[in-house]
Design brief:
5 strands, alpha/beta, Rossmann fold, DNA polymerase, domain 1, 5-stranded parallel sheet
Length: 269
């Protein structure tokens, strides 16, 4: 297809492009907190998915159940020093997790190839800091996933929901205006990031954090069970302001056609 009106695309990583269900961050957080004697439910970790991982750590520690568990164990509330301690452990835990959760999601590599054929650059943002991404990038590249630009929260003043990572992508890709660019992501913070940058923003459900299942798990569910989870994810991402919703990156082309037509008509996000 010829998307002549789209200047650039920015994609998220875990849950959108690699790691179906976004499990590497969950596994790493569980392990990192466990090293401090605290058990964190996966659902609590997923509440803040998409945030920069230091901010993500901080938000988990603010949860009443986690703060109370911390107080029971240490007789005090968590401090910023505790944030840094867990964040350090998280980096080490991630080294193990990414070996199991770094497979490109169906359609991700094909999507990159089609964008390049169309002359559209593909940037990316993530909640992983640069040190963590340096572990992930070579593994993803060996498997064929290599966007043109990768921007991390510590490359800019603040991560999501602020738009700075999208802005730096645009600088590096030399693309503008933002109302002719598209952001894909599977979390509320992804949607907020895209909206705050003034971009067309597409939410991803089935492969992403809001459904939070492996491909095998989704295939084991009945249609009614799976559709219920997808509908809940659609509702959450739509309420966050996503302009379009798709199951996964494998459906990206159909919304790009609509967005290209919207831009041709002079519409803006």
């Amino acid at each position: 297809m010829n998307y002549s009106n789209i200047k650039g695309v920015i994609v998220d990583w875990a849950g959108t492009s690699i790691d179906y269900g976004s499990f590497a961050p969950v596994a790493a957080f569980i392990d990192a907190f466990r090293q401090s004697g605290i058990e964190v439910p996966a659902n609590d970790i997923r509440k803040f998915m998409g945030y920069g991982k230091r901010d993500h750590t901080r938000e988990i520690l603010k949860l009443e159940n986690i703060s109370n568990d911390w107080f029971e164990r240490y007789k005090r509330r968590p401090t910023e020093d505790d944030v840094e301690k867990i964040f350090y452990s998280l980096s080490l835990s991630l080294e193990k997790a990414i070996l199991d959760y770094s497979e490109p999601i169906e359609g991700a590599i094909d999507f990159l190839e089609k964008m390049r054929t169309a002359g559209i650059k593909v940037g990316s943002t993530t909640g992983y800091v640069r040190e963590m991404m340096n572990l992930i990038i070579p593994i993803a590249e060996k498997k064929g996933f290599k966007p043109d630009v990768i921007v991390c929260p510590d490359d800019v003043p603040s991560g999501r929901p602020y738009p700075w990572m999208c802005y730096l992508n645009a600088v590096k890709m030399e693309t503008y205006p933002f109302w002719e660019m598209v952001k894909f992501g599977d979390t509320v913070s992804d949607i907020n990031e895209g909206l705050n940058a003034g971009m067309w923003t597409v939410g991803i459900t089935k492969s992403g954090n809001e459904v939070g299942l492996t491909l095998a798990e989704t295939e084991s569910l009945s249609d009614i069970e799976l559709n219920s989870l997808i509908k809940a994810a659609e509702t959450k991402l739509s309420e966050a302001g996503a302009h379009f919703i798709i199951n996964g990156i494998w459906e990206a082309e159909k919304v790009l056609e609509q967005i290209d037509e919207n831009i041709r008509k002079g519409l803006k996000p």
